[in-house]
């Protein structure tokens, strides 16, 4: 094979790595485990508590798979860089058809510049960062910059979740199940933006916006109307999600 053919084969292999799917599965298992944990609280049945343990094990296994994929990607990208000079070492490779929000983060995602002092001050007042994996089921907490009430928004199912799901369906999100994303802090704040007509908000959370096909990164731009934008800061994380994206039909 020529150098060009080898490079093409490597790029094709990189595009087939299901980074986003694994990240979404890990998120879904984590939230399912939290739901089951709450449902069986107080139960004396061994099977109920064993299921929680199995969920935690599945989540750890998925985290391990994600780590292997990250290592494989880094090695293949390094080889590709030495072979042809492109792509640059450390840059993520994802199918061109994927929306930017669905593309897996590269190693440089951990090198996000420090946040402005007023953002760091809010981060310092939030609970510790939500770990990955999250066997204790810690919830994401968030505050909106400039909120006079300084309200803490907490992830979880409530009446807003149902309204978020209704709006997503109106916007063409046709899946057979309700994504757990509708319970996330970012989505709750986005719903508030729609209700109040606030076109730009900066949100600080003790987590990062989840990646994947039915994640906050994918659904926030669909939920928010065109002309709206939510900016999200988290520990070592910063991104913006402008609204108006059409869900693929």
Give a written overview of the molecule.
Residues 88-144 are annotated as: Disordered. It comes from Actinokineospora bangkokensis. The protein has 249 residues and is an alpha+beta fold. It folds into two domains: 3-84; 115-243, no CATH class. Helices cover 46% and strands 10% of the residues. The chain contains seven helices and five strands. It has helices spanning 3-16, 19-39, 46-84, 117-125, 159-170, 185-196, 216-223; strands at residues 141-144, 153-154, 200-205, 229-234, 237-242. A hairpin with a 2-residue loop joins strand 4 (229-234) and strand 5. Helix 2 (19-39) runs antiparallel to helix 3 and helix 6 (185-196) packs parallel to helix 7 (216-223). It is globular, with a radius of gyration of 19 Å. Residues 87-110 have low confidence and may be disordered.
In short, what is this structure?
The protein has seven helices and five strands, in the order ααααββααβαββ.
